[in-house]
């Protein structure tokens, strides 16, 4: 399960572009906490700490406890805007999360037992269609990652969401179709040979 991350913050007295620029010059990132039938709360956080947490790789599928004014606000990060050139975080949005609430999260996938896939053993390529899955789960039970077993998959076969065993209490947010997560593509050498054969047949 993903950890709860703590993010110290301070309230913002002034809004607007000028105030935001001044905060960024001081190494702070303007942010907003919203939702939960409460007024939006304008805050700012330390850029270095926000960047460190973003670098953990599971920031967006973690619960973030924003500490402001002696209170801890349970939130889910919804968006971070980055500078197009420097990639510095410019603004962050956090959604309040009540205890026991259900959340929508994108959780990365990892593949295991590749040595037990006949298609991959023959030189096939694992073509990943979705690098993460959109899931619905309890805010307390957000998985770090979803492990997918490729045992037995051969060239030309696809791995669908129906093949994946999700943790208890975790469901796919997409329920109207059995979508593809990855395919086992033919090795390039095999594709080339088939292509050459086809061209010879056409020449005749």
TrEMBL record:
Boundaries of every Large ribosomal subunit protein bL25 L25 domain copy: 7-94
Question: What assembly does the database describe for this protein?
Answer: Part of the 50S ribosomal subunit; part of the 5S rRNA/L5/L18/L25 subcomplex. Contacts the 5S rRNA. Binds to the 5S rRNA independently of L5 and L18.
State the residue spans of region: Disordered: 1-22
Q: Which InterPro entries match?
A: Rbsml_bL25/Gln-tRNA_synth_N (IPR020056), Ribosomal_bL25/Gln-tRNA_synth (IPR011035), Ribosomal_bL25_b-dom (IPR020057), Ribosomal_bL25_C (IPR037121), Ribosomal_bL25_long (IPR001021), Ribosomal_L25_dom (IPR029751), Ribosomal_uL5_bac-type (IPR020930)
The record lists the organism as Novosphingobium guangzhouense
| Biological process terms in GO annotation | translation
Q: By its UniProt entry, which Gene3D superfamilies does this protein fall under?
A: Ribosomal protein L25, beta domain, Ribosomal Protein L25, Chain P
- Signal sequence range: none
Start and end residues of each Large ribosomal subunit protein bL25 beta domain: 103-187
| Record-given protein name | Large ribosomal subunit protein bL25
């Amino acid at each position: 399960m993903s950890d709860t991350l703590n993010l110290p913050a301070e309230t913002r007295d002034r809004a607007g572009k000028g105030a935001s620029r001044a905060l960024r010059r001081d190494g702070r990132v303007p942010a907003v906490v919203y939702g939960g039938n409460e007024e939006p709360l304008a805050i700012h956080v330390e850029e270095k700490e926000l960047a460190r947490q973003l670098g953990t790789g599971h920031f967006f599928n973690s619960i973030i406890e924003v500490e402001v004014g002696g209170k801890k606000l349970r939130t889910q990060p919804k968006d971070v805007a980055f500078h197009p050139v420097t990639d510095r975080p410019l603004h962050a949005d956090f959604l309040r999360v009540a205890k026991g609430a259900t959340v929508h999260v994108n959780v990365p996938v990892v593949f295991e037992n590749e040595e037990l896939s006949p298609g991959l053993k023959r030189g096939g390529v694992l073509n990943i269609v979705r690098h993460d899955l959109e899931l619905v789960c309890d805010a307390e039970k957000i998985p770090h990652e979803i492990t997918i077993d490729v045992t037995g998959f051969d060239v030309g076969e696809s791995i669908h969401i129906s093949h994946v065993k999700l943790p208890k209490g975790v469901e796919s947010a997409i329920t109207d179709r059995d979508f593809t997560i990855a395919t086992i593509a033919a090795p390039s050498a095999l594709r080339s040979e088939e292509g050459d054969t086809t061209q010879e047949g056409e020449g005749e």
